[in-house]
Amino acid sequence: MIRLLMSDKPCGSSAKPLVVLLLSCVLAAMPHVGMAQDTPEESASGVEPAADEPVTEEAGGAEPETPGTPPDRRRNPFKRLGPQPLTPEQREEAERLRKTAAKYGTDPTAIVGRMQLTSQYLDLTPHANATLTTARVDLPFRGDYLLRMDMPFLRTTDGQSPGMGSQRGLSDLAVTAGWRAYNTPEYALLVGAVSSFPTATEPVLGFGKYTVGPAVATARFLPRLDSFLIGLLSYQTSVGGDPSRKDVSLFNITAQVNSFWGQRWWTIVQSVWNVDFERSGKSSMVMEFEGGRNLIGRFGAYIRPGVGIYGRDVIGAYVWNIEVGVRYMFASF
């Protein structure tokens, strides 16, 4: 696809600190179902030691408690890492914002229908650029399942290859199937599979390969910000296609904060990190800001500018871009 326009010059920045930061953001958004946490039933059962009784160490031999440590933190040192209990008011607000995000089309874990058209301009290198227009359709069914289809139309221009000129036509069709495995007002988790098909009308406009891989989306309510922390992970690997074309092995992580303003406005701040394992694990990162508005009923529109941070010659990266889109949202079948 766009990778054929990019140079092979190595990126001089190390990605390790940013990798750790992105993984931390994504993991923070996922439900910490394995963390121990005091429940109201445990507190009411009277199992905890009374205030005048000494706290004994368990058979495994726990470390001595630090003087002045609050009792709840002594009982559960990992409590702050797991899901925090919400007040009834916070749960009500989380539920309201979940419905708002589904209506606006900004919650990737929501099972809701969509018809969307987007167009973006990408400045790839000093001599190359591209325009990508994508038609998306989301079809929800049975309450917890979603089928998504993305059909992109790509136009590329490379000033360093005058003989090629401008290439335009259909790119690779992408299909995603998802299942919402976990859903509460404060947490949601969607798992699925993403695949692409070599439907490009010109070799430079697509991979020339069939690809498949897992995809995960998770959303966590942030009560102090009235926002959602969202994490997206996907991996694609080639499983067939033109044997003369290069294999595909791409990993993507997106971390974003989705906020709502007034009755109709939303913003998204996100960082996108890509790794191309077919190029010795070279990576890239871009930062994007989205501002959107619900126009009328189920119609909405947004604009999203972005800037490349490093690795601008890697698939999915750019020097800068700007994207606009309109969408119509509809309820599940």
Strand elements, count:
13
Pattern of helices and strands: HHHHEEEEEEEEEEEEE
The CATH superfamily is identified as monomeric porin ompg
Tell me about the largest β-sheet. 12 strands, antiparallel, barrel
Distance between the termini: 34 Å
**Measured on Cα atoms, how large is the radius of gyration?**
23 Å
- Helix and strand content put the structural class at mainly beta
Main-sheet strand order equals 1-2-3-5-6-7-8-9-10-11-12-13
How many separate helices? 4
Overall pLDDT metric: 81
Second-tier CATH architecture: Beta Barrel
Tell me the β content.
Answer: over 45%
The count of domains is 1
User: CATH topology, what is it called?
Assistant: Porin
Please identify the top-level CATH class. Mainly Beta
> Which segments are poorly predicted (pLDDT under 50) over 5 or more consecutive residues?
2-21, 32-69, 77-82
Estimate the global geometry from the Cα principal axes.
Answer: globular
Helix content: 10-25%
